[in-house]
Amino acid sequence: MAAGGARYVRYIIISLFVLIVFYFVSSSTDVVPPIKPHIPVYNGNGPSTPKQPTPDHGSTHLTDSTGSTHSSPNSHKVSNNYDPSKYPLALTPNDPGWNDLSGIAPGPRINATFVTLARNTDVWEIAKSIRHVEDRFNRRYNYDWVFLNDKPFDDLFKKITSSLVSGKTHYGLIPKEHWSFPEWIDQDKAAKVRQDMKDRKIIYGDSISYRHMCRFESGFFFRHPLMMNYEYYWRVEPSVELFCDIHYDPFRYMHEHKKKYSFVISLYEYPETIPTLWDSARKFMKNHPEHIAEDNLLRFLSDDGGETYNRCHFWSNFEIGSLEWLRSKAYIDYFETLDKDGGFFYERWGDAPVHSIAAGLMLKREEIHFFNDIAYYHVPFTHCPTGEKLRTALKCHCNPDDNFDWKGYSCTSKFFDVQGLKKPEGWEEESKKD
Ligand SMILES: Nc1nc2c(ncn2[C@@H]2O[C@H](COP(=O)(O)OP(=O)(O)OP(=O)(O)O)[C@@H](O)[C@H]2O)c(=O)[nH]1
Ligand SMILES: *[C@@H]1O[C@H](CO)[C@@H](O)[C@H](O)[C@H]1NC(C)=O
Ligand SMILES: [Mg+2]
């Protein structure tokens, strides 16, 4: 059967050919070096220079170790001349790239970092936060993460966090002057206040470290040598959660829309912690009229034209903001006025109202942004975006009944009113639920 034999030979040759092709295709990733995505880092100004990887050991005396234990999958190439329209942000489900949530995001990177202040004992709680941030966003962007502490980070903290962050990790020690009583503080007076606040059962009222924390977050974190390497920050605290996919780069949003400060939750401050904060702020306004923005957001902070503070503030455990703004003369003059008045120790001023008053007075109101699409939890409040269509599109896993935005103790409704923004459909029904 000659014809049958030839057929077998043909089959064998074809099978061999298919096998060979298959072999080459499947092994080509080993043979050909993987193509690294070319990701320029956008920098609002300054020359275009490649970002140097930080050396592994102490670039400054305040850095106990950079802890860069693994390299990120992309090399953040610096370029300050990208054309935003060439890499449109996927802001809505109709925008190109919306469904592209796998692999490294194409397009430029901003000169930005995550930042966390934490103790070594916070390691497992910050691990959870990092997991949320990475899964919902950073695994595709690989931004750096700076960790700051008033004591050196231990090996466990560095090992766990650097294994979870997809970008580079840096670990910094806070200098003593940024975490201690300034010399003009009367220790006896401060101690009496703590005892009194303890008796009145004011939350963290008797804590010294909480006060150092609030003062550090108010006036120093953005000036730490590790933070000097960036223009924007995203603050992350232990035990926070993100409930929805983030389809675009919030840092780029901030940069391209000229935003300087942003929030997801706002609320009223405990009056007992800030009796004279507004007096200090008014002193600053009087002494530094040059720093007050013309089209500011004072109406969010005060219901009587600046006479009194209504206690509305952006909740600062989440913040995406401009470091350049915090490092500006305006902000530093403001912080120094407050710091001299001593309320971080004679009262218990929180960094949230301190940042919020600064933003409300010194920024133009269009420079402050509400990130509705970043769903967030920090005990005990949740921001879960209003509108089922949006939540489904973002694959959110928060319970909409938990949304705090339109509840009586939130200031977000006021923010919308003052900004002249249209509230999302369904907000009224949510505000009626308990
Ligand atoms: N290194 C260091 N970090 C601290 C210290 N106290 C607080 N932090 C950090 O500062 C941030 C705010 O502290 P929290 O204890 O979360 O304060 P809070 O958010 O007002 O209160 P909670 O409701 O308890 O979360 C967190 O990132 C903490 O990890 C401290 O003494 N040392
Ligand atoms: C990022 O910003 C910092 C602070 O402005 C600057 O010193 C640094 O050169 C910038 N880095 C890049 C890569 O542009
Ligand atoms: Mg917290």
From TrEMBL:
It holds the Pfam family Glyco_transf_15. Keywords: Glycosyltransferase, Membrane, Transferase, Transmembrane, Transmembrane helix. This is Uncharacterized protein. The chain crosses the membrane at residues 7-25. Belongs to the glycosyltransferase 15 family. It comes from Remersonia thermophila. InterPro entries: Glyco_trans_15 (IPR002685), Nucleotide-diphossugar_trans (IPR029044). Residues 43-86 are annotated as: Disordered. Residues 60-83 have a biased composition (Polar residues).
